[in-house]
From TrEMBL:
It comes from Streptomyces tateyamensis. This is ROK family protein. Residues 22-34 have a biased composition (Polar residues). It holds the Pfam family ROK. Residues 1-34 are annotated as: Disordered.
Length: 360
């Protein structure tokens, strides 16, 4: 019996024409397949080549075609369907990548010169470790598998949050901040520290895995038990689960922050307190000039940032600047694009990503 998958969704950018096509998802709910090509006046003349970045997430997988300046030309979104394991995700992602590569040739006359991917977890040279939001991906040789699926010699792979921090450092809200801190508040919770023009990877490629911090409410050996205490408390997934248990109906994290129900407001207050204490502790440790917040929870940034700024003012001796990521929820995707661009051969000296990002 064949397995049904939701169709790819080509998501919108400012200015594109989007033509939705109704489709049926694996769960029987209506979904929309959308193809979006970004028409941007800056893409003149047509690029000689393009790059393709892939962002694997616990909920969705996104692919973007970009020109040599990093401008997105077209993009595709897939449901990761993480509970079904990595094989189906890799197969559907490779198919979507081939479609974008064909579009690069047909619409722009510019072949894809480099691919790169980002994913949550600890990216080792030959495998991924600690991927609670991607069941079955533990020990997966992602770089090798992607290269085989795409029929290319090499696909650099890096941690999604550190790659997002690199994109924000090069072209976003961390430019000019030294040191800087990027905090990803999405399906998972993680951070990345930037010093100068570098993103620190750590001795075990695990720098910034703050989801494993213990806010004091979990046992001392929680990590040994397979828990990620902070992430289990304040990630987008955790908040949606807690809200549904509390209110008796489905409610995503953004809906929770915007809810006016007393029970929801109490949960929001508790969440903001934990986030503020976490940021204050990080700020006290590294004294960042600026903290940049990105990923899914930033769809409620207008409610979250002012309260975090207020709480931070009294929680650390030198409160840092607090900003929303320039790339909002797309920092990791732009990080993959940056990684692909950096892998292109270019005359003259250029920093090796593996030196400061942990890319493989």
């Amino acid at each position: 019996m064949s397995t049904a998958f939701p169709p790819p969704e080509r998501t919108a950018h400012p200015g594109p024409v989007v033509q939705p096509v109704p489709a049926q998802s694996a769960t029987g709910r209506n979904t929309t397949a959308r193809h979006t090509t970004v028409r941007n006046a800056t893409v003149q003349p047509l690029p000689a080549h393009t790059v393709l970045g892939i962002d694997f997430g616990g909920t969705k997988t996104e692919l973007a075609l970009a020109d040599p300046a990093g401008t997105v030309l077209a993009r595709t979104r897939l449901a990761t369907l993480a509970e079904r394991g990595p094989e189906q995700t890799l197969a559907r992602t490779a198919s979507a990548a081939r479609e974008l590569a064909a579009e690069a040739r047909q619409r722009f006359g510019a072949p894809v010169a480099a691919y790169a991917a980002v994913a949550p977890g600890i990216i080792q040279p030959d495998r991924i470790l600690l991927t609670p939001n991607l069941p079955g991906w533990e020990e997966l040789a992602l770089a090798e598998r992607l290269a085989a699926e795409l029929g290319v010699a090499r696909v650099p792979v890096a941690n999604d949050v550190r790659a997002g921090a690199l994109a924000e450092l090069r072209r976003g809200a961390l430019r000019g901040a030294d040191p800087g801190l990027y905090v990803n508040l999405g399906t998972g919770v993680a951070a990345a520290l930037t010093v100068g023009d570098r993103v620190l990877a750590g001795a075990n490629q695990a720098a910034g895995e703050i989801g494993y911090l213990n806010p004091g409410s979990a046992p001392v050996d929680a990590v040994a038990r397979g828990q990620a205490p902070l992430e289990d408390l304040v990630s987008g997934k955790a908040l949606a689960d807690r809200a549904e248990r509390l209110l008796g109906r489905p409610l995503d994290a953004t809906g929770l922050f915007r809810s006016t129900e007393p029970a929801a407001r109490q949960l929001v207050r508790e969440t903001l307190d934990v986030l503020a204490m976490t940021l204050a502790n990080l700020a006290t440790l590294v004294d960042p000039e600026r903290i940049v917040l990105g990923a899914g929870l930033m769809s409620a940034a207008d409610l979250i940032l002012p309260e975090l700024e207020r709480l931070l003012a009294g929680a650390t001796p030198f409160p840092p600047q607090l900003r929303v990521a320039h790339f909002r929820q797309d920092a990791a995707l732009h990080g993959a694009i940056t990684l692909a661009l950096d892998s292109l051969p270019e005359p003259g000296p250029r920093p090796a990503l593996a030196d400061h990002l942990g890319a493989r």
